[in-house]
Design goal:
By secondary structure, the protein is of the alpha/beta class. The protein has 8 helices and 10 strands. Strands 5-9-8-6-10 form a 5-stranded mixed barrel, surrounded by 4 helices.
Length: about 230
């Protein structure tokens, strides 16, 4: 079994890459793929880059070139629910685009207007969160190519799809994994509240997300051990 592990930014995968053993690295189509073992399991770890196109193309490479059997996407997101707070985790039970014509996308494989995390992987993620002492929910993740950093955009997305958090890759990852028949799950640690304060922290000041990523790294490592 080969498990693919993805992030969108280097910080989201660097700590996982540092834990790998028997590592080989390969650059392919602008992405560096780290092949090795984590918790005794064969994994391929990579940083796809931000946005839907980067995420989708990288998932296809993981499926076609590396033959992954399962896929975990780990990163940060903007919180859009009162059920969890900064540093807590949303595991993608449902993942949907907030900026797409869903009926048109669903005309091609996997023929869905929304995507669902693999139940076994979702449960493994929730169990890993419990083991790591992290508050988590199985919830709804909304994906779009715009960074959500203002109250007006946040409200529009809330009214359209009522998500628990918002980010820029999850639905594309889920769509292409589904097209290839690869079970996947999206994990998101909350880094901000998807409003003006989040834009200031993550974009204007280019704040380090290392403290948030540490949470996700521990969860993924625990997950891998249980699979």
């Amino acid at each position: 079994m080969i498990i693919g592990i993805m992030g969108a930014m280097p910080d989201e995968v660097d700590q996982l890459c540092a834990r790998l053993e028997n590592v080989t690295k390969e650059n392919y189509a602008g992405v560096e793929y780290h092949c090795g073992t984590l918790q005794g399991k064969q994994v391929v770890v990579c940083c796809a880059g931000m946005g839907k196109a980067n995420a989708a193309s990288t998932v296809q490479v993981l499926c076609t070139k590396y033959g992954i059997d399962k896929l975990i996407f780990s990163g940060i997101a903007g919180n859009m629910t009162s059920k969890i707070g900064i540093g807590d985790v949303c595991v993608g039970e449902t993942v949907v685009y907030h900026d797409a014509e869903l009926s048109m996308i669903a005309q091609s494989a996997p023929f869905q207007t929304e995507y669902h995390g693999d139940p076994a992987l979702v449960q493994a993620a929730l169990d890993a969160c419990t083991a790591c002492g992290v508050k988590a929910i199985a919830g709804k993740i909304a994906t779009g190519d715009t960074f959500v950093g203002d109250a007006e955009t946040k409200k529009t997305i809330e009214e359209k799809c009522h998500p628990d958090c918002v980010e820029m890759e999850g639905a594309a990852v889920s769509q292409i994994a589904g097209r290839n028949g690869v079970p996947c799950v999206i994990l998101r640690a909350m880094s901000d509240n998807a409003d003006e304060s989040g834009y200031e922290v993550l974009v204007v000041k280019q704040f380090s997300i290392t403290e948030y990523v540490k949470t996700a790294t521990e969860i993924v490592a625990n997950m891998i051990e249980s699979l």
